Structure formats: structure tokens, C-alpha cells
């Protein structure tokens, strides 16, 4: 039986990370590309909204909080959501809102954690931190 030789496709030879260069005038990209001040982070709006809906539900269902504390926590959640949507979020404000919400109980803290584990949020904060330190 004849051995089949393994051939490497041209596209595999020209691939580097998430960028596929398969000709002089054809470039296909995948994944995230990062570049200077023109960086934009695209979030799946529905998934982002669902994360905050879960947080809101956890706040509303927390009977350890008074009605006033629940209202204050909902307002903090909305402010956090608005700040995270900004192209240049204020890291200090985000830290204060996050710390406030984390102090409101384990289930609320878990919902906040899920928001900060969402890759587009992480990337947005990474870019904001890089801008802050000038890299």
C-alpha cells in the first residue's frame, strides 16, 4: 500500500495567529486585533444586557437588603453598566461601583464576578488600563 504524503495547505503556511494572509491583496482576520487609540471593543449587546439582568435579579431577590439598599444597589448596577459601555471607561469609578456591589452579599458578588469575567469587559478594562499607564 502506498503511503500518502502529508501536504500542508497554502493557507496554513501563511497563517499567523488570527490573521490569514493568502495572497498579495487578500487578508482574512479572525479574533481580536488591537491597535492604539482606535481600538474598539465589540460586545454582544444581548449577552451584556443578560449579565446585568442577572445582577439586577440577584439584587431584587436579596431580602437581607432593605428596600433603600436594594434601590441604591440597582442604581450602582446601572451606573456600572453605563460606565462599562463607554469607549473610555473611568477605572476609578468602576472600581468603586464594583467594590460597593461586592459588599452586598455572595449571590450579588457572583453576578458581578460574571460581568467581569465576560471577555469583552476584560478587554475593555485592559485597554483602559493601558491608556492610563501610557502603553
Q: Keywords for this structure?
A:
6 helices, 135 residues, single chain, mainly alpha
List the helices and strands and how they pair.
Elements: H1 10-13, E1 15-16, E2 19-21, E3 27-29, H2 45-61, H3 67-85, H4 91-102, H5 106-117, H6 119-133
Antiparallel strand pairs: 1-2, 2-3
Helix pairs in contact: 2-3, 2-5, 3-4
Report on the structure:
The chain has a three-stranded antiparallel β-sheet with strand order 1-2-3. It has a domain of 89 residues. 59% of the residues lie in helices and 6% in strands. Helix 2 runs antiparallel to helix 3, helix 2 packs antiparallel against helix 5 and helix 3 runs antiparallel to helix 4. It is mainly α and 135 residues long. The protein is globular and about 45 Å long. It is built from six helices and three strands.
Number of strands: 3
| Helix percent band | 55-70%
Q: Give the H and E element order.
A: HEEEHHHHH
Structural class: mainly alpha
Shape: globular
What is the strand arrangement across the widest sheet? 1-2-3
Number of alpha- plus pi-helical segments = 6
Strand content: 5-15%
Task: Tell me the radius of gyration.
Answer: 22 Å
What can be said about the biggest beta sheet? 3 strands, antiparallel
Return residue spans where pLDDT drops below 50 for at least 5 consecutive residues.
Answer: 8-41
Mean pLDDT: 80
Amino acid at each position: 500500500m502506498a503511503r500518502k504524503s502529508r501536504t500542508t495547505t497554502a493557507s496554513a503556511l501563511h497563517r499567523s495567529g488570527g490573521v490569514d494572509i493568502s495572497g498579495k491583496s487578500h487578508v482574512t482576520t479572525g479574533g481580536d486585533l488591537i491597535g492604539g487609540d482606535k481600538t474598539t471593543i465589540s460586545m454582544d449587546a444581548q449577552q451584556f444586557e443578560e449579565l446585568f439582568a442577572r445582577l439586577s435579579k440577584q439584587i431584587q431577590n436579596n431580602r437581607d437588603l432593605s428596600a433603600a439598599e436594594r434601590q441604591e444597589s440597582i442604581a450602582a448596577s446601572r451606573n456600572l453598566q453605563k460606565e462599562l459601555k463607554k469607549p473610555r471607561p473611568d477605572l476609578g469609578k468602576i472600581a468603586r461601583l464594583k467594590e460597593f456591589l461586592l459588599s452586598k452579599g455572595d449571590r450579588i458578588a457572583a453576578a458581578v464576578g460574571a460581568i467581569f469575567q465576560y471577555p469583552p469587559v476584560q478587554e475593555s478594562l485592559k485597554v483602559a488600563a493601558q491608556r492610563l499607564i501610557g502603553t
